[in-house]
Amino acid sequence: MNELLYCDPMTQELQFKKFENVFTWFDQNGDGWLTPDDFEKMAALFISVADENDHKNRALMKEGFTLWWGLLVKANEGTSGEKISKEDFVRIMKGVTVAPGDFEKVLSGVIDGLIGALDRDGNGSLSQEEYVRMYDAIGVPPATSTEAFKRLDRDGSGELSYDEFRQAVFEYYLRADPDAPGNWLVGSMEGVG
Question: What CA–CA distance (Å, rounded) separates 24 from 190?
Answer without folding.
Answer: 18
